[in-house]
Design a protein that fits this description.
This protein is of the alpha+beta class and about 475 residues long. It has one domain: tRNA-splicing ligase RtcB, CATH 3.90.1860. It has 17 helices and 20 strands. Helix 4 crosses helix 12. It is globular and about 65 Å long. It starts with a strand and ends with a strand.
Length: about 475
């Protein structure tokens, strides 16, 4: 089928897995959806396509607005959305980044095998749940004053290294080495800093989690070797972001933009796309505040990893170094970054907004860490707690097709409200344990119900499309063993 229509939004098939919403009306550029027929049916089932079409009206939008294979409806800008705007004549949009700035994932590898873990699953999940703060509100690995928060905001993982919560190798395996140099703590409100000072080193709630996994499949052995991955190996996946601090930064700047740039806001089809014109004082201030929140999130995940290492030491009776618990990679998926991309033969600096999308730079790109530059940037795609996750590498087609981006997860197909009506948390926990040997511990049964495997798209299909398009190549698949949630 060469054309599809969902709720009045028409798409044309450009080629396999690439669907385009042609430019019309107030659209500045076309929009594209990267999806199979099956995924397109799910993407078209909510307001994702209309939100994507709306996003094309942001000033300075370049080439096309994009929806990744895991896309679904968000606030204003769709989750799974990618939009690149010109840094001179465009804009930056907090709504196109999202409230959880630098929500992202990091994977830590170990030299443990699945056999080493069997029989210790319940002890491990209990110890992790006890040691790592989760859920709404306060509580963190480090409860600090405002001076510490300011240092974290400006220095990122450098602060954690100096404070003894990281080793040098951790920085070398983190996006941007765990620090955005444009960060400015003074651009972050006191209210945001106060929200962050009691949450440094915590998972939070919702879809955030820590999961102990085993590697079940290796698809590209040369890349897996470079990443230090092998079948039956135990790895740890951490998914969380900037907590209340990042949420407050987004909220603060949305309100400021509404007051100061109401003329631009009035031109946009959705107030949640609120944007500051490139070069304006507010655009520069938001960028510095966003970079500071990015640093906070990297430190947050670093502290959760530090505490995880301590738990493994207690449970397995060995130093974490002896278990080779090293960071494979940490990558953000709610972010806007100044990047240089080829646009119609010209190199242009753009604000690349990735909201629920992952950077996926190919081999040879200078921003890929030296350890992986010959094979490509690691990309971590979490699935549901019953379906497993994937490690990919940035694909050769990512820069031309998607501004160096791919999916960030499985993507929801069911709202949290509906999920709590469809599933009973305790039943989900029991079935995962008894049928799949997956041990889940959460603050409440409602959290488990909201995150039941059935509320997500098929992560295998999401990754298959990414691999087929060449934007993110399959390297390895992992499967849950233990999972803790807020």
């Amino acid at each position: 089928m060469t054309t599809r229509e969902f709720d009045g939004v028409r798409l044309e098939r450009v080629r396999e897995y690439v669907w385009e919403i042609p430019r019309e009306g107030e659209m500045r550029v076309p929009a594209r959806v990267l999806a199979s027929e099956a995924l397109l049916e799910q993407i078209g089932d909510d307001r994702t396509l209309q939100q994507l079409k709306n996003a094309t009206q942001l000033p300075g939008m370049t080439k096309h607005a994009l929806c990744m294979p895991d896309g679904h409806q968000g606030y204003g800008f769709p989750v799974g959305g990618v939009g690149a705007t010109d840094t001179e004549h465009g804009c930056i949009s907090p709504g196109a980044v999202g409230y959880d700035i630098n929500c992202g994932v990091r994977m830590m590898r170990t030299n443990l095998s699945y056999d080493d873990l069997q029989g210790k699953e319940e002890e491990l999940v209990d110890e992790l749940f006890r040691a790592i703060p989760s859920g709404l509100g306060g509580g963190g690995v480090v409860e600090s004053g405002l001076d510490t928060v300011k240092s974290v905001l400006e220095r990122g993982v450098d602060w954690a290294l100096e404070a003894g919560y990281a080793v040098e190798d951790d920085l070398l395996h983190c996006e941007d080495e765990g620090r955005r140099p444009d960060a400015d703590a003074d651009a972050v409100s006191e209210k945001a800093k106060n929200r962050g000072k009691k949450q440094l080193g915590s998972l939070g709630s919702g879809n955030h989690f820590l999961e102990v996994q085993r590697v079940t499949d290796v698809f590209r052995s040369d890349v897996a070797d470079a990443y230090g991955l092998a079948e039956d190996q135990i790895v740890v996946l951490i998914h969380c972001g900037s907590r209340g601090l990042g949420h407050q930064v987004c909220n603060d700047y949305l309100r400021k933009i509404e007051k100061r740039h109401g003329d631009l806001l009035a031109q946009l089809p959705d107030r949640e796309l609120a944007a500051a014109p490139a070069g304006s004082e507010l655009a520069e201030s938001y960028y510095r505040a966003m970079c500071a929140a990015i640093n906070f999130a990297w430190v947050n995940r670093q502290l959760v990893m530090h505490r995880t290492r301590e738990v493994f030491e207690r449970v397995f009776g060995r130093d974490w170094e002896a278990m080779e618990m090293h960071l494979l990679y940490d990558v953000a998926h709610n972010i806007a970054k100044k990047e240089v991309h080829d646009v119609d033969g010209d190199e242009r600096e753009l604000y690349v907004h990735r909201k629920g999308a992952t950077r996926a730079f190919p081999a040879g790109h200078p921003e890929v860490p030296k350890a992986y530059r010959d094979v490509g940037q690691p990309v971590i795609i979490p699935g549901s707690m019953g379906a497993g996750s994937y490690v990919l590498r940035g694909g050769e087609e990512s820069l031309s097709l998607s501004f160096g981006s791919t999916a960030h997860g499985a993507g929801r197909v069911m709202s949290r409200t509906r999920a709590k009506k469809e599933y009973w948390g305790e039943t989900v926990q029991s079935e995962l344990r008894d049928q799949n040997r997956i041990y889940v511990k959460a603050q409440s049964g409602a959290t488990v119900a909201e995150e039941a495997p059935g509320v997500y798209k098929d992560v295998d299909e999401v990754v298959r499309v990414s691999d087929a398009l060449g934007i993110g190549d399959k390297v390895a698949r992992t499967y849950p063993v233990c999972n803790i949630k807020g």
